[in-house]
Amino acid sequence: MRVWSxxxxxxxxxxxxxxxxxxxxxxxxAEVGAWALASLRRYGRLARxxxxxxxxxxxxxxxxxxxxxxxxxxxxVEGLRQLAPEEVPGPYRTGLAARLPxxxxxxxxxxxxxxxxxxxxxxxxREARGFEEAAALAPVVVDCTGLAARxxxxxxxxxxxxxxxxxxxxxxxxxxxxxxxxxRARPRTSSxxxxxWCSAGRRRRATSGSPRIRRRxxxxxxxxxxxxxxxxxxxxxxxxxxAARAGGRVRIEAVPLPxxxxxxxxxxxxxxG
Length: 273
Ligand SMILES: Cc1cc2nc3c(=O)[nH]c(=O)nc-3n(C[C@H](O)[C@H](O)[C@H](O)COP(=O)(O)OP(=O)(O)OC[C@H]3O[C@@H](n4cnc5c(N)ncnc54)[C@H](O)[C@@H]3O)c2cc1C
Fold this sequence. Notes:
Layout: E1 2-5, H1 13-16, H2 29-46, H3 50-53, E2 55-63, E3 81-82, E4 95-103, H4 105-118, E5 122-125, H5 131-135, E6 140-143, H6 149-152, E7 158-161, E8 165-167, E9 192-194, E10 197-199, H7 203-207, E11 242-245, E12 251-256, E13 262-267
Parallel strand pairs: 1-5, 6-13
Antiparallel strand pairs: 2-4, 2-10, 3-4, 7-11, 8-9, 12-13
Bound molecules: flavin-adenine dinucleotide (FAD).
Flavin-adenine dinucleotide is lined by residues 4-7, 12-14, 16-20, 127-128, 144-148, 152, 162-165, 194, 221, 241-242, 267, 269, 271-273.
């Protein structure tokens, strides 16, 4: 199996994702819920080794969110509960208490690449100009080109949706177990979170005028348009944003290739990459 990537791992949209586990802004909701729960279980296993995988459990508040507005998947998420108004931190009116996987994407992508290569996969920096090129080498071609599928497929219904996140130094964000005192000591891990999410134990500072967060997010990252809140740290360059299709429906579809092969489109994950 070969992976072609036009960009370096750290130059992809995935590398700049928050990245909090949360099925959001992606359809069809019924199927996405089940897929998300499968990935939740998988991340749970990877979180046993956060240094290597980049996946860790983080307890916190999912601000501006109500339980009733979520799908049936929410019932399967252990510990997810609606907070009473007086429990909601900072300037928010509503929020959920949750313990969710938070993924340090540069670490995670490096881990995934290493695992793929250890299994005999070949990763190479290579830009495909069309699907024929890959189809000449393999009977099955998977198109996970993100936003680039807009030109490559082409799919004009695929649009960039930008998000934002904030940097801050965190302490004790590993659900109260291991504590950190500086981002430098453990580079990047837990220092980046989607706005609208407050890590446990730091809720007040994170949302009520901490000098490390100059102003609170007006909305959660997922609704925001325009990347402007990468307020701290030497983050990777931000690519064009998450790719979402009209109606929010992810495209996972196999189509026949002219030579008898198969092309599997797999893009448009919106805010639930
Ligand atoms: C600021 C921000 C925060 C986010 N936070 C979250 C979050 O908290 N949780 C969450 O679930 N999601 C989040 N997302 C969404 C998530 O990042 C995306 O849905 C996800 O990264 C999309 O992954 P992808 O693999 O489809 O695309 P990409 O990460 O864009 O990868 C596309 C790949 O295809 C390659 N490629 C493109 N064109 C070609 C070509 N012609 N030939 C060869 N290779 C090509 C690229 O080089 C790249 O390797 C966030 C997005 C942003 C922007």
